[in-house]
Amino acid sequence: MIRYFILLGFVFALNTNPSFGQTDEIETDRPGETESPFIVPENFIQIENGFSIDKQNGESKTYKIPSTLWKYGLNERFEFRLITELVSEKENNKTETGLKPLTLGFKVNICAEKGLIPMTSFIGHLTSTNLGSAAFHTPYFAPSFRFTMRRTLTEKISLGYNLGAEWDGETAEPTFIYTLSTELSFTKKLGGFVEVYGFAPQDSKADHNIDGGLTYLLNNNLMIDISGGYGLTENARDNFLSVGLSYRFTTRHNKHHI
């Protein structure tokens, strides 16, 4: 599976098309579970930070302090990705704090929006076994993938949705993923979303969740967000709250800035 991810990424990376990149304003994969099909502009680095608290089963809590998605735009259709997560997990009076194993990946555009066809991208990730704190090491590499799609409904409303699967590094059992998000533009700077999403392990009962939040564009390259949600099924997490800060900058100062 790993070699197929790499092959797919390089095939699309060699074929550029300027219609697939971000617009003048920063586009992020947060907040919420639904990830965007937009690509970071060529030669830009984009950093998306999220600080969150996640409660489950009444007593278990996970703090992300922070979770960071690092992106680099190789061209208008392809971006490299790195995920780092500094977490503190509390369960049964025991606390583990440290860095989760590093995740490497890419996002590649497949097609632009045209008629009923949504803008579509593919995201592939691979999480390492031991490139992190010892408490969070896993016996196996953990791949994941998603098809990310967005369709414009009106000037101020769009529909985003993802389909994919992930592995946890502990077993060979995949967990299938779905998301569906209504994305709103209240003003030029203020946006919001309402979303449902779920995780369906191959041999276990699926859990379903709902969340929503707001984004505010401070300038074309800087955005803040806040979001929260809760589980709809008994086996889902109880609730969560997250705040984020995302920004981007060019690595070529002699070129025109977005």
Overall description:
The chain has 258 residues and is mainly β. It is built from one helix and 13 strands. The protein has one helix spanning 2-13, and strands at 44-56, 60-75, 78-91, 94-99, 103-111, 119-127, 142-152, 157-166, 175-185, 190-201, 207-219, 222-231, 239-250. The protein starts with a helix and ends in an 8-residue tail after the last strand.
Helix content: under 10%
Q: Helix/strand/pairing class, anyone?
A: mainly beta
Poorly predicted sequence stretches spanning 5 or more consecutive residues: none
What is the distance, rounded to the nearest whole angstrom, between the alpha carbons of the first and last residues?
A: 36 Å
Tell how many strands the DSSP assignment holds: 13
**Order of strands side by side in the largest beta sheet?**
1-2-3-5-6-7-8-9-10-11-12-13
Label the overall shape.
globular
Gyration radius from CA atoms, angstroms: 18 Å
| Largest sheet report | 12 strands, antiparallel, barrel
Number of helices: 1
Average pLDDT confidence is 90
Order of helices and strands: HEEEEEEEEEEEEE
Percentage of β-strand residues? over 45%
Keywords:
single chain; 258 residues; mainly beta; twelve-stranded antiparallel barrel; 1 helix
A few lines on this structure:
This protein is mostly beta strands and 258 residues long. Helices cover 5% and strands 57% of the residues.
Secondary-structure map:
Elements: H1 2-13, E1 44-56, E2 60-75, E3 78-91, E4 94-99, E5 103-111, E6 119-127, E7 142-152, E8 157-166, E9 175-185, E10 190-201, E11 207-219, E12 222-231, E13 239-250
Antiparallel strand pairs: 1-2, 1-13, 2-3, 3-4, 3-5, 5-6, 6-7, 7-8, 8-9, 9-10, 10-11, 11-12, 12-13
